[in-house]
Task: structure prediction
Amino acid sequence: MNANDLNLIISSLILLVAGMGMTFVFLIVLVWCTNISSKVTAHFSHLLPDPTPKKAPAKAAAKAPAAATNASDDGELIAVISAAIQHRLGK
Result:
């Protein structure tokens, strides 16, 4: 290994450390700016209130038959689950 190769390696290591250092500093500044922005927007959030969600029209008549069929399905579902458990336990 000659002196030229050694100088090239040293230069590349200096460039590596400088690049990593600049990236680290940039990320620190980015976090700092994000925190400041969060505090500023929280301070002025009362100027732009959150929109209230629109309520969907209720369909009570359509839900009533579904509730009646669910009650009969629940009994059948309980019977199926019980049979599966009994089969699994070997009884």
Observations:
- The radius of gyration is 34 Å.
- The longest helix spans residues 3-43.
